[in-house]
Amino acid sequence: MMNNTPPAPTRRAELLAAGAAAVTVVLWASAFVSIRSAGDAYSPGALALGRLLAGALTLGVICLLRREGVPPRSAWRGIAISGLLWFGFYMVALNWGEQQVDAGTAALVVNTGPILIALLGSRLLGDPMPPRLLAGMAVSFAGAVTVGLSMSGEGGSSMLGVALCLLAAIAYAGGVVAQKPALGSASPLQVTTYGCLVGAVLCLPFAGQLVREAADAPASATLNMVYLGVFPTALAFTTWAYALSRTTASRMGATTYAAPALVVLMSWLFLGEVPGLLTLMGGVLCLAGVAVSRSRPRAADGAGAPGAAPEPRPEEATDSAR
Q: Which pLDDT tens digits describe the chain residue by residue (322 residues)?
């Protein structure tokens, strides 16, 4: 009788990838609180550049200590595209968009990103789309909509802000899908470091604004900008790349739906924004959808046909598609 239990190294790798994804989601959720603070003193472009410079400096030091070399030529296309779209354009567009719309509307529009990732991943990377993944994403998106509606303010939206948030979501999805093939030949640290550098170069036209605003900004705003660069950028993007290299883009995109629930909790703890019942219900839906999308169907004991092969995991299906 065939033993379908994964070997110990595979199980350990899965646990490490899940832990890395959890670190990413928690840190990206914490960025909401820091952006709220730093955004009062820094303009969108200056905040993005300061964040990326802090991230690039942190990553550069780590690369020197680990003696990481330059990524191979085959990885540069994905690194450059993800750097331009995700590290550069996304951060500026999102910062600008959140100044034009209320937090709820921004959350609603930006949370179309994981859906776009799933569609692009299926089309361009051959990612499988199992029913549980689709069902989990539907539940999580419903939760994100609920959170967004409960947080929306009156008259706080503009067509420009909605368009910017939508462009940010598209850039986010494109950056993730472009990053996935690069991880096949470069390490997560290399992909993150050089992607961050590409984004920083793209934002260099905002250097003058950053210098002028840093001179007048309170220390708390500058510290929040540095925090954004060191933790939600340098650390969280590296743990994201590590997890992405071990699963599909679609599943990783679905995992980020846990962020709205964590944002609600952190806003409650650090900003004193007490969530309403509708907001809490939406957060629960987000977490439930992530749990469904990350689960695998249990094989019924003795129900399978004799000699039938076990259903491949998404990671295996992706490897065979490459």
A: 444 333 444 777 778 888 998 899 899 888 877 887 888 899 999 999 999 999 999 999 999 999 999 999 999 999 999 999 999 999 999 888 878 876 666 666 777 888 888 888 888 888 887 888 888 888 878 877 777 676 665 445 578 888 898 899 999 999 999 999 999 999 999 999 999 999 999 999 999 999 999 999 999 999 999 999 999 999 999 999 999 998 888 888 888 878 777 877 776 777 676 667 777 787 787 778 778 876 766 543 344 433 333 434 444 333 433 3
**Contact status, residue 137 vs residue 127, Cβ threshold 8 Å:** no
The answer to whether 295 and 132 have CB atoms below 8 angstroms apart is yes
Q: Taking the domains of the chain in order of start, what are their residue ranges?
A: 30-294
Contact 168, 93 (CB under 8 A): yes
Give dist(CA 42, CA 61) in Å, integer: 26
Q: Select from 179, 196, 172 the least CA-distant residue to 247.
A: 179
Contact status, residue 114 vs residue 252, Cβ threshold 8 Å? no
**Sign of the CA dihedral 191, 286, 135, 150?**
negative
Residues making up the chain, counted from first to last: 322
Q: Which residues contact 25 (CB under 8 A, 6 or more apart)?
A: 255, 256, 258, 259, 262
Distance CA 222, CA 47 (A): 9
First CA to last CA distance, the chain: 30
Cα gap 226→210, rounded to integer Å? 13
Type of residue found at 296: R
